[in-house]
Specification:
The complex is a heterodimer.
Chain A: E1 6-16, E2 22-32, E3 36-40, H1 47-54, E4 62-67, E5 70-71, H2 79-84, E6 87-91, H3 102-111, H4 117-130, H5 146-158, E7 164-168, H6 176-191, E8 195-199, H7 203-206, E9 212-217, E10 220-224
Helix pairs in contact in A: 3-4, 3-5, 4-5, 5-6
Chain B: H1 2-10, H2 14-35, H3 37-66, E1 74-81, H4 87-98, E2 103-109, H5 111-122, H6 125-130, E3 139-145, H7 150-161, E4 166-170, H8 174-215, H9 217-225, H10 230-272, H11 285-311
The chains are: A alpha/beta, B alpha+beta.
Amino acid sequence: MSAADAMIVFEHVHHRYGEGPEVLSDTSFALARGEMAFITGASGAGKSTLLNLIALLARPSRGRIRVDGRELAEIRGRRIAAYRRGIGMIFQNPSLLADRTVFDNVALPLLIRGLSGADIGRRVRAALDAVGLLHKEKAYPATLSGGEQQRVGIARAVVAKPPLLLADEPTGNLDPDMAREVMRLFLRFNQVGVSVLVATHALGLIRDLPCRVLRLSGGVLSEQAPDPAPERTFDTV
Amino acid sequence: MTPSKRVTDAGPGWAERLAQDHARAIRTTLGTVARRPFGTLLTAFVIGITLALPAGLHTLLANLGGGIGGLPQTLRASLFLKDTVSPERGLALAREIARRPDVSGTAYISREQALAEFRRYSGLAEALDLLKDNPLPASIVVDADARAPRARIEALFKQLAALPEVEEARYDEQWLTRLQAIVSLIQRLVLLTAAALAVTVLVVIGNTVRLDIENRREEIRVLKLIGAGAGYIRRPFLYSGLWYGLAGAFLACLLVEGSWLALRAPAQRLAALYEGGLALHGLSFEVAMAVFGTGAALGWLGAFWSVTRDLQRIEPG
């Protein structure tokens, strides 16, 4: 894969918290533009750390990381915010603001970009429609189920059309049906060219998907062979 | 990144974006202030009292300095002329003195005018009738600009006293000097008090904004996570500080004006005991504007101080 084709490149990345053991050890991998991949591993294997390094929520102890052709080591200070605007982030806990409606929560990334009210309305409704929650735009997060809250979080992550989506255990709090629905959404975004990197330990959910699976164990990343199954997704995508 | 640029490019220009962001921050913060009237009023009241003290003292000083006895606009000297000086020469000398720097005005009082005034005010009219000649000399009253340096005024009066036409010069500026020194001391005290109270306002607003930041910690964390810049996150807190400062200034003006209304009658009775022509006044327009300007500036600064320090502590992840 050439540098221009890569959305994410890790080169010999090490990471440890303080004086603790290495969470990531000599990790190298690349995610192509428009590719969707999974990172699996047990709890504490370093999946979240890897995503945090990409989102600049943490810095590697050693090694180089490039995202969209940019050296992350060179992104500092005010440029961090601009960099993060190019990434959609989804977490196990969707971190919705309780005192704002679904619409207002999803509108946040557009508000910080200074879009006009009309543009914001159009894009937010399109994002909510994509996750099947258009009818809940005036609801408050506390009135939504866990799955609905997670979908609002996904709508917020994709509303500004970032080129890269990072998801950290996005199905951790969801029942199997809802978890499949969330994965189906990621596949749909990937189909329109968004690079997607999902950290999950729900192996059963991703078994049938023709995506690369990177396994983290003891801080070491290894690649699992792709599933030969030809189907793109959970048969309804 | 390319798609994020696509989104930005599709939006309005930077000036329009900035205006939108400010308008949004104003709407949001005014809404927040309106939703918490008690808390806002409490903060504004503390700021109001703090701003009212120096504003009230300043108004009191303005009344003392510019009101009672016409202090300290002019310093007056009386030059008693020799009997040999003719009225024409006396008048000419008065005009010459009036042209000197630091002299704001002169008045020639002839011997006849002096006698008439003495007769009118002394109550000794019958005694004066017994005298064959008018014993009072002609004089020139010289008003010097009290804002000029004291040493220069003293030098001026000494020069005037040494004029060949002058028999004797009198100027009793000691009590004025003392009063001016007291006023000057009080002015300095007002400045020091105002500085100390300004720090108090900064701390009050800074602390209120710090509590706002704590209450919105999760929102700040999310905003940082999705790429909001420092300016975007900081803006609503700065506006909150500004509103607190302006609300405090409004209450301060009300307090000073209210106090003036309550004190006006006895103050005017006291003023009437001094020479007439006093014009006591409440908060002037200039001072009111200064209170609003100070409130706004301190509100903004207090919020800026707090938000700059506290926002760095809140990081996502």
